[in-house]
Amino acid sequence: MENIDLINSFSEFKDDKLIDRVTLMAILEDVFRNALKKKYGEDDNFDIIINPDKGDLEIWRNRIVVNDGEVEDENKEISLSEAQKIEPDFEVGEDVSEEVKLFQLGRRAILALRQNLISKINEHDSTNTYKHFNELTGEIYSAEVHHVRRNVVILLDDEGNELVIPKDHQIPSDFYRKGDNIRGVIEHVELKGNKPSIILSRTSPKFLEKLFEQEIPEVFDGLINVKDAVRVPGEKAKVAVDTYDDRIDPVGACVGMKGSRIHGIVRELGNENIDVINYTTNPRLYIQRSLSPAKIVDIKLNEDKKYAEVILKPEEVSKAIGRGGHNIRLACKLTGYDIEVFRDDVQDEDVELSEFSDEIEDWVIAEFSRIGLDTAKSILELEVGDLLKRTDLEEETILNVIKILKEEFEE
């Protein structure tokens, strides 16, 4: 096989991988030099001439003519009689350049050369892919679902690059079907062997920030800054926004009339409940806003320990904590403070039963609510026998609930 035939045989492969001709020629030279080293021991006396326009390649070995019987290095020296077979006028001490044809390397060397060339091209392609996606880390990217597995979803983009969404980067309510177009942020890129591993995330707070940038013009233009975002993916999120322009209401601009602007983001995130608040450097005010929609009576701060005691009316406690504790947990993340909630004047006030969800199971609370007992005092005012008759609860369960409620009022 001629040298040029080998190059042309990879033309289609080159086009598939989008490698330019010059790059392919550079890879070819490197591969051929490795083959020459294996065949002749070294390659520094070889000239490899590449014509990227024609896709042509020539290999020339340079040797010095020595007297017959004085050849010590066959790779770099040639006897006078052998040199004169190439050109009768050669004399001792002159340089001889002789073209090396591909077949002279041997069949096994040619097969190895082919494999090495494929490996080098794949390595080049993988490195370029890694660099491209590494520069996109933290940016929104979309790709099509190619395969759905139990713990990972495999995507392909328009260029045929493979991306994956591991289970912990999927929103719990997400449902994937082959052919669906999925958006997320490039969370992480690394080279595993010679293959880039590209992680797409839909649970990252950065995804929420970038959605604000895409969907809200003032954020895209830099008039409104997203200072921070925290999430319980698929459940609840809090986003703090700020602006340098006093004429702009950053929260109103992000939410839009009747939630029109934020609706698309909520839908993208599986109906995640998003609270947008005004950022402030005042820690008291920031904590107060972060616990929205709860109304706070008082806040006691320990700046050194980043600890806050928040006092609320009993009816506001459940709002501050939120369903599953999401509201207060996100407020802690957003502000950087360890926030603890305390009830104000609980001795004189009744307390909603739902506020005891951390001590009383939800199905028990639901059973009491079914018969109209929604507060602590409404249960404590009845005899155990009455509660047994009116509910489907066991006596042990009822006694345990009464114990919990009494302890609350005795504090």
Automatic annotation (TrEMBL):
Signal peptide: none
Record keywords, A-Z: Cytoplasm, RNA-binding, Transcription, Transcription antitermination, Transcription regulation, Transcription termination
Keyword Transcription: yes
Ranges in a coiled coil: none
Classification via InterPro entries: KH_dom, KH_dom-like_a/b, KH_NusA_2nd, KH_sf_prok-type, NA-bd_OB-fold, NusA_N_sf, TF_NusA, TF_NusA_bacterial
A molecular-function term among this protein's GO annotations: DNA-binding transcription factor activity
UniProt subcellular location: Cytoplasm
Span of domain K Homology: 233-306, 307-385
Keyword Nucleus: no
Function according to Swiss-Prot or TrEMBL: Participates in both transcription termination and antitermination.
Quaternary structure note: Monomer. Binds directly to the core enzyme of the DNA-dependent RNA polymerase and to nascent RNA.
Family: Belongs to the NusA family.
Protein name: Transcription termination/antitermination protein NusA
Organism ancestry: Bacteria, Pseudomonadati, Bacteroidota, Flavobacteriia, Flavobacteriales
Gene of this entry: nusA
